Amino acid sequence: MGASQSNGPGNKSKPVPPDPKKIAATRAAEEVKKKKEILERQARILKAEKNQSWRVAVGKTLPKLLKETIIVPDMTRRNVWMEDLYIFNSIKAKYPDEIFHSIDKYILKWQPPGSNFQVMIPLDDPSLQENAILVLSKLKKKDQDKIVFLFTTLDPHLPMFAEKVHPASLVSYRTKIEVLKKLSDLFLEGKITVQEVEQVFSCDLDVWRVTLYNLLPEDEQVYHTYLMEKLKPVDEKPLHRKYLDEDINMKEYEALKFPDRTKRRYIESLTYPLPVEGQMCIICGKDKVGVVRCHTCENMVCKACILDVFHGKVRKESFLLMHHKYCMKLGELPEIKLEAVPDDAFLREFRNSSRTSVMQRFKPKLHIEDEDDTLLLDLNEEEAARRRAEEARLRALQEEEERQRLLENPPELQQLKAAFDEKRKKFEKYRRELNDYNEKIADTSHTDAYINRHRRLRSDLVAKVRKNVLAPIESVQKSVSALTLPGEYLPSLLRDVTMVLDDLEALLAESTDDVDGA
Questions:
Q1: Rounded CA separation 79/88 (Å)
Q2: CA angle 325, 330, 333 (to 5 degrees)
Q3: pTM of this prediction?
Q4: CA atoms within 13 A of residue 9's CA, in its CB half-sphere
Q5: Among 22-36, 215-229, 376-390, 416-430, which is the least confidently predicted range?
Q6: Is the predicted pLDDT of residue 3 greater than 50, yes or no?
Q7: Torsion (CA) 218, 221, 227, 230 in degrees, nearest 10
Q8: More confident: 232 or 225
Q9: At what angle do helices 205-215 and 176-188 cross, to 10 degrees?
Q10: Following DSSP, what letter does each residue of 253-282 receive, concatenated?
């Protein structure tokens, strides 16, 4: 019965478990395939890598011979990015006996092809180094070999290499740990026996230091003479023990334990301005009276000497010379006397033969002989009389023009014109507003309330125009018409007034027709 049920069509068969060996083999094959792809891709990248050899000159200027340069091989983008300071370390390897400055003190200079300027490449900037590799890769091989990079200092006054010092001066043995470590190194080198080490370690630190000094080579002892100095005993007694032993009192204990509190209390106790502690006066020599400092050095001058020497009535010296005379003890400066030195002969001759003197020499003269002075005076008097007559004629002509202008344009007419100009400006303003109202009233797309409101506003504005513009201009027209004056001033003003009145009446008629029709 059980067999028949298991073989029935409705029963599902159990899944077959996977074979672990097949899974492991499949994964191993996939890993081998991935590694093979990585190696192939790496091989393609290395094959396409731009590998260059840079020719570098070390110094302040480019050398004349190529044999004075060095070659930095394997200049690739991978080495520039993956190797720390690749160029700097490659150059240092060529000079093992020299001591270099830090990398920020150096720079790499080169001049790209077709450029008139040099480019500086920092040795710690891989991006600029990669850019130089890409630029060089576009050149032919023979052109690449001609490019020379200059490895020099950023500061032109800085020497190329650091000063050579003895290696012993770079180390110190000031602490107990440093002395113990050096003695242990000497014991391992066999320079000191076990018995001697036991005897040294059983003593205090001063014996350790002296023993180390004696074991150092003679050329290194000059850099470690401090080992022969005896150490000062350090007072390691705590504050509370000093207080209990009555070495310090309570105030001293508080001041040593809380120095910030003591300093703040001292500052709060001060009064401002702070008292000035006088010093010795450099002029009179009195002690603790100097309050004014010299403008150059630290010497002081008292108030009495300032008033007597630099502001006195009898003598008054310059404060700027105080340092020279009193501080440096150089005394007074010699009096400067200016002497009139006669000019040299060639200068006098040059002035006599200059262009001005030559022009004066050939300038035509009004008289030649002394007896012709009377003729010259007569000519001058005639010229002055002619000039005075011309000035009188011009002055009379100007006065006549001014009288004629006042006759044609008297002050009364000027006032009328000023009043008319003012009303004409108002008329221009009111005309723009009335035209605006007329356009809004003529627009039938608005509501009746909107149109009625603008009609009311226009009616108010029309009344204002009649009162403030029309009536004054008509008054001006009446006054101008009553005048009788020669010239063009009066007719011109009358034409302007009539023209404005016509425009004003036409505008008012246009603005009131709509009201009458409504």
A1: 12
A2: 70
A3: 0.34
A4: 0
A5: 376-390
A6: no
A7: 80
A8: 225
A9: 50
A10: HHHHH-HHHHHHHHHHH--SSPPP--B-BT
Residue 376 makes CB contacts below 8 A (sequence gap 6+) with 366, 367
Transcribe 81-118 into DSSP letters. HHSTTHHHHHHHHH-TTS----GGGEEEEE--TT-SS-
pLDDT attached to residue 242: 84
**290 DSSP assignment:** B
pLDDT on residue 449: 86
Q: Which helix (H) or strand (E) element contains residue 149?
A: strand 148-153
Angle, helices 411-442/448-465, rounded to nearest 10 degrees:
170
- What pLDDT band is residue 21 in, cutting at 50, 70 and 90? confident
Q: How far is CA 30 from CA 27, 36, 38, 43, 52, in A?
A: 5, 10, 12, 20, 37
How would you class 2 by CB atoms within 10 Å of its CB: exposed for 0-12, middle for 13-18, buried for 19 or more?
A: exposed
Q: Which residues contact 100 (CB under 8 A, 6 or more apart)?
A: 92, 106, 161, 162
Q: What is the pLDDT of residue 338?
A: 72
Residues 6+ apart with CB under 8 A from 206: 230, 231
**HEC states along 431-493?**
HHHHHHHHHHHHCCCCCHHHHHHHHHHHHHHHHHHHHHHHHHHHHHHHHHHCCCCCCCHHHHH
Question: What would the mean pLDDT of 169-185 be, rounded to a whole number?
Answer: 89
Question: Do residues 122 and 72 lie in contact, with contact meaning Cβ atoms separated by under 8 Å?
Answer: no
Token representation of residue 496: 């302007």
Whole-number percent of the chain with pLDDT over 90: 11
Per the CB < 8 A criterion, the answer to whether 87 and 96 are in contact is no
Least confident residue range of 167-176, 194-203, 343-352: 343-352
Q: Which of 344, 316, 448 is nearest to 440 (CA)?
A: 448
> Across residues 51-73, what is the average pLDDT?
89
The predicted structure's pLDDT at residue 355: 65
